[in-house]
Specification:
mainly alpha, two-stranded parallel ribbon, 5 helices, 2 strands
Length: about 80
């Protein structure tokens, strides 16, 4: 895995705010695990630019259904491109 992928990544639109919201809603106990899962997902998909749509893909792929149901409507309201 590429080291410090989250420090090297570029963000577009509200994607960084969306990511920060997801982390802020994550219990402290699981925060490091979520960061690792997201970093691995980014590496596996060879992502260099995080767009708002990529945030949705990550949530769809990683988050349990119970969390998706709560997060997705909030993230949709944060979209800058409708």
């Amino acid at each position: 895995m590429k080291e410090d992928v989250m420090k090297e990544i570029k963000w577009n639109g509200n994607s960084k705010k969306m990511y920060e919201l997801v982390l802020s809603q994550t219990p402290l106990l699981f925060k490091n695990k979520i960061i690792r899962l997201v970093s691995n997902w980014i590496n596996d998909h060879k992502i260099e630019l995080i767009t708002e749509e990529v945030i949705f893909e990550i949530v769809e792929d990683i988050a349990p259904l119970k969390i998706k149901v709560k997060l997705l409507p909030v993230l949709k309201n944060m979209r800058t491109n409708g």
